Amino acid sequence: MTVQELPGAGASYRPTPPPSWRPRTEAAPLLPDAEPYRVLGTPAADKLDPELMRRCYAELVRGRRYNAQATALTRQGRLAVYPSTVGQEACEIAAALVLAEQDWLFPSYRDTLAAVARGLDPVQALTLLRGDWHTGYDPREHRIAPLSTPLATQLPHAVGLAHAARLRGDDVVALAMVGDGGTSEGDFHEALNFAAVWQAPVVFLVQNNGFAISVPLAKQTAAPTLAHKGVGYGMPGRLVDGNDVAAVHEVLAEAVHRARTGGGPTLVEAITYRMDAHTNADDATRYRDDDEVAAWKEHDPVELLERELTARGILDEAGIEAAKDAAETMAAALRERMNADPVLDPMDLFAHVYAEQTGRLREQAAMLRAELDAEAQG
C-alpha cells in the first residue's frame, strides 16, 4: 500500500487502493457436500458393480472375523495390544481395494485390516503389535508403508513419496489413512499444505470414528466438518458415509483418479464409528454410553451391504456362507500361527534401523554379541 500527499496546507495523507487481490483457488468447488455421500439405500445403488460388491462383502466378513480373532489373541497374551476396526471395516476395505498395484498405502496403527486386504500376511500385519519386530513386513513387497503408531507422522511421508514419484514420472498415487485425532497434529497441517502446494498425487482418508481415544471430536475442532479443512489448503474436501463401502470406494476412486491424472490431492472424511474400545487397554464405558453404541450398530457396514446385495439378487445364501467359511479358515490359520512361539534373534535389534549401520550401532551390536557368546559358554 502507498500513501499520497494531498495538495493544500497541512500536507494530509490518504492511502491509495492496493492492487486488486484475487484468490489462487476458488473456494466453492472445494467445499464438501452438506451431508455425507451415500450409495446403499439410494437410487445410486442401481449402478453397483456386482463383482466388486461381492468382493467387498467377502472382505468385510473376513475383516470382521479378523478383528474378532485379533482381539481374542490379546486376551490370550499373544498380542500386546490391538486397536480394533470393528465398525470401520468399510473404510479399511475400500482403501485397500481402490489402489492399483503400483500405488502405496500409508496406514496408521489402527489400519492393519487395510494392509491385510491389500494382500499382507495377517501374521506379518500383527507382528509390530506383538512386539516381535520393527515393522513385521517388507514395505516394498505390497507397497504398504510401516504401520504408524505416532499420530499422523505417516502423512508427510506419503506426500514425500507421491511428490517424488511425480518428479520421476512414475504412475503412483499414495493413499494416507488417519483418524480424527490425528487431524489435531501438526503433521496433518504440514502434509496437506505441502501436498496442495506441490499438487502431489496423494489422497488423505480421515476415518472420523468420533473419538481420539476418549476425546470427542467436538473438543478437538470447531470446523463444520473435517472435510472443510481441505479448503484452507486449496484441495477439495469430500464427506462420505464411512459405513457405506460402495460410497467410500466411489469417493476414493474419484480422488485416486484425480490424483493420478494431475489434479492434485483430495481430503476425504469418512463418518464412521468404532464399536469396540480404542484398544484392549481402554475402557470405553467411561466416556460413551451403551445407547450410543447400539444406535451405530443399526448402521453396521457388513449388514448394510448384505441387505442391499441380497435385496438386489447380487448375493445369495450360498455366497454368504462361502464368505463366512473363508473368514473362519483365515481365523483358524491366524490363531494357529500366532499361538506358535516365535524364534527371536536378539541381534535383529540392529537390523533395518538404518540402510547402513552407523558406527555406534556396530559398537552396540558387538557388545551384545559378546554378551550372548559369554552366556552361551556358560
UniProtKB/TrEMBL annotation:
InterPro entries: Alpha-ketoacid_DH_E1_comp, DH_E1, PdhA/BkdA, THDP-binding
A Pfam family hit: E1_dh
SUPFAM superfamilies: Thiamin diphosphate-binding fold (THDP-binding)
The keyword Oxidoreductase is annotated on this UniProt entry: yes
Keyword Oxidoreductase in record: yes
Region of interest: Disordered: 1-27
Keyword terms of this UniProt record: Oxidoreductase, Pyruvate, Thiamine pyrophosphate
Cofactor(s) it depends on: thiamine diphosphate
Residues in Dehydrogenase E1 component domain copies: 67-329
PANTHER family: 2-OXOISOVALERATE DEHYDROGENASE SUBUNIT ALPHA, MITOCHONDRIAL
Name of this chain's protein: Pyruvate dehydrogenase (Acetyl-transferring) E1 component subunit alpha
Protein's organism: Streptomyces antimicrobicus
